[in-house]
Amino acid sequence: MASPEHKAIAEAIGAVLENLSESSLIGVYEGQRRTYDYSCLLMRDLDRPLVAQVLWQHDHGLEKDIRTLLFDSHALIKLYVMRDSARLRATIDDVLTSYRDDLTTRERLIGLKLIFVPPDFDADDETQRLWLRSYLLSTFSRDLEFGVAFGGFTRHSFDVFVAHQGPVGLKYAILHEICQNGLLRNPEFMERLKYRTSGPIREALAMLNAAGLVRKWDTSACCFPTLRGRFLLDFTRRLLLDIAAGSEWSSQTKRLFRALGMVTSDFPMDGIHSTRRKPRGWFGVNLQHADLCGSQWGRDLLAGIDPAKPVLHSRFRIDQFLREMAIAKGFSSRFFSEPEYLFSPEDES
């Protein structure tokens, strides 16, 4: 029979993932709990089945749990939450080393995330239950949300984008066009933008590529969206919705700011809609670029979004790009899956 701590941890996992989905940037659809303590489908650009298992009292079940998680052919993200102890860490190190040293099983470690909870956690203590949710929220936000779902998006990526100026709204129009249709041939790309000056486009593309917001194919001029670049557009939409809705940032936006290590930016009380009024600071100027992308380039970032029930995530249209690049040798869906942003126990500190 599961202990109160075991049940409390499993419930906290579900509650925290639901909390993450409140930003509208991720979809979380809980599945049936048969083999695992928790399971769901994490939806954003790519659908990623997630499973979670808790180990609290019965240490002898560790090897079976690890084997079940690693050999699950459907789950891409595998969370293992356990009571911390020196003995347990030594045991799991031995188990994982055996998988890591075998070439036939090493890749199965990809997607596994170990999370340790203090051994004196008491599920009957409300203060400790609240701490647990705060701890898991911080861990999931850093590693699962920004690390996996948002393609390793960081404060540096955002700062590089914000600092780039150029014609008002052009950088957003370029990123939007690449996320929608890619860049296969420069003349067609410029025609879709309705902009014939190549210099500012080249500068913006260089910035986007350096920040990991787009990705070039091999040595060609072809550019395609990344998970990180698609997130930046949706994060900007989250900011624009907040501005349209009220006089302060939403609690979820404040959480995203904290996760990025940003001091919560001043809310633009004076508005961002006029080209004659320059907002305060680069962050405000960047929001003006986003807002005016519609009037300047015909690309309203909030088009089709219901402010009352916004959905700021969508499936990656990978098939479209695969068809257009069919003659390119070696080009495949792996180019977009970005497996480097999945967990690996080798990265654990």
Note down, in words, how this protein is organized.
This protein is an alpha/beta fold. The protein is built from 14 helices and seven strands. It has helices spanning 4-21, 62-70, 86-100, 126-149, 155-163, 170-181, 186-193, 198-210, 227-245, 251-259, 281-291, 293-297, 318-324, 334-337, and strands at residues 27-30, 38-43, 48-55, 77-83, 112-117, 214-216, 223-225. Strands 1-2-3-4-5 form a five-stranded mixed beta sheet, sandwiched between helices. A two-stranded antiparallel ribbon has the order 6-7. Helix 1 packs across helix 4 and helix 6 (170-181) crosses helix 8. The longest helix has 24 residues, at 126-149. The model has no long low-confidence stretch (mean pLDDT 91).
SSE arrangement:
Elements: H1 4-21, E1 27-30, E2 38-43, E3 48-55, H2 62-70, E4 77-83, H3 86-100, E5 112-117, H4 126-149, H5 155-163, H6 170-181, H7 186-193, H8 198-210, E6 214-216, E7 223-225, H9 227-245, H10 251-259, H11 281-291, H12 293-297, H13 318-324, H14 334-337
Parallel strand pairs: 3-4, 4-5
Antiparallel strand pairs: 1-2, 2-3, 6-7
